Structures are given as C-alpha cells and as structure tokens.
Amino acid sequence: MTSRKTHLDTLAITLLLGCCVFWGFQQVLLKATLPEVPPVFQAGIRFVGATALLWLWCVARGIKLFGSDGTLQAGLVAGVLFAAEFACIYIGLQFTTASRLTVFLYTSPFWVAALVPIWARAERMRPSQWLGMACAFAAVVFAFEEGLGAGTPDTWLGDLLGLAAGMMWGLTTVVIRTTSLIRVSAEKMLFYQVAVSALALPFLSLALGEPWVWHFSAFAITSLAVQTVIGAFVSYLAWMWMLGRYPATKISVFVFLTPLFALLFGALWLKEPVTLNLIAALVLVAGGIVLVSRRPEKA
Description:
Shape: globular
Largest sheet: none
Radius of gyration: 19 Å
Order of helices and strands: HHHHHHHHHHHH
Number of domains: 1
Number of strands: 0
Strand content: under 5%
Number of helices: 12
C-alpha cells in the first residue's frame, strides 16, 4: 500500500524544483527544434523512445506492467488525455512563442484544485492556500504582461491550444488521483500515458500530413534525446511518483515556477532582457508556494 504524506518534505520540494527547471528549459528546446522536426512527429519519436526506456526499466526492476488490476479503463483515459495534451503543446508552438504557450499550459493547477477536492475531501484547500495560488498565478500573468498584447494573427490559436493542453494536464492529474490508478506503481501509471501517446501521435502526425524526414542535425538528435530520456522518462516518472505520495493540490502549485524558468531560458537563449517584471514575479511565486505548502497549525 502506498504511504501518502500530508505535506511536502525536502525530497518532494527538491524533485519539484528540478522538474520545473527542466520543463521551463524544455519548452524553449521544443520550439527551437520545430524548424527541423515537425511538431507531432517530434512528439511521436519522443514517446516511442520513452515507452521503450520505461519498459526496459520495469523489466530490470521486476515491475509488472501487464497484470490485471482493474486499472485498464482509467489508465486508457489518462493516456488519451496525456496524448491530447502533448499534441496541443507541439502543434500550438507553431503559432505562438514558447513563453506564451507555457503561461496557458500551466493553468493546470486550477483544474486540479477545483476538481480533486470533490473526491478527496482531505485535500480541500484552506483560504491561505487559495491566496497562495492566486499570488502564483498573478505572478505568471505579471511576468508575461508586456508580451501578451503583441503577436501574429495566428497567436490566438497557439494560445488556445496551450490553454487546452493545460486543461488536459489538469484532468489527467484528477483521473490519477481519483481512480484506481493511485494504487499502482509510478512506472505503470506513466506507462499508460507514454504508451498511448506512442501509439496515437504517429497516426496523428500522418493524418496531418507531416513529412517524416530522418536526416537530423546533431542539434536535433540531442534535442530529441534530451526530450525523451530526461523529459518523457526521468522527469515524468518522478512526477508520477510524487502524485502517488503527496497531495496533488500542493505539488501542482509548483508548476507556476515553470513559466518563469521558461522566460529565463528564453532570455538566455534568445537574448531577451530580464525585466523588473520578472524579478517581481519570482518574488510573488515564492510567496505563493510558501502559503500553499505550509502545514496547517495544530489546534
């Protein structure tokens, strides 16, 4: 039986910060790879590779993936939502910037906070935690305020796809937390998602008429390797592990850090200036995380 915790410990905070730093970098990396590798084709390669790596990991550790445990239906639902999320992300990056799409993608905690307590009453959020989430979201909006009003005519489509991706991510988390999936290993939980994506995304790529060109530059090969090994395997396995052991509403608020890291990496990669807005937003995010993660005082 999985031992669940009621608060975030040092291990959880360390893993969450590591994931957020990488995910912020990853959004910029995905955008930079699009000129060479079509979006959904890129996503398909990523999840085919991640599925193979996860299967090898489970074989080496003796973790059963295919036993009958009553999770198939919930696992397929989570897998479809996960695949839809990444289809929206990769396609959306064609129309909007990585920074803008990341803002909308990371609205996912609101779906989690709003829906998980319906089934898990122990995770109802206190007023101070709602204030923390409001601070964190305000920080994200504040950090990107200067750029949200400008864009190409198709920017709205990319933004909408980013928002849809955020909803899919939030709903995936809700499915995991409120169904039999919460009882399975992190490996099996992730396997449902990457395996369904590995099956669905190549067919979607073909349906969209994307060219499958296999002559990649050294940069594209490195990008795909990093997306697959660190992104779709290591970081998502850590995320699934945490979902099974810590309150979903508390770990989900950390994702507000990712858009800020995406902006930082965008500034370093694309030489964009780091403004006072960004510094102020970082302070607000830190304050929001403290409010959400703080243990309730005992009476």
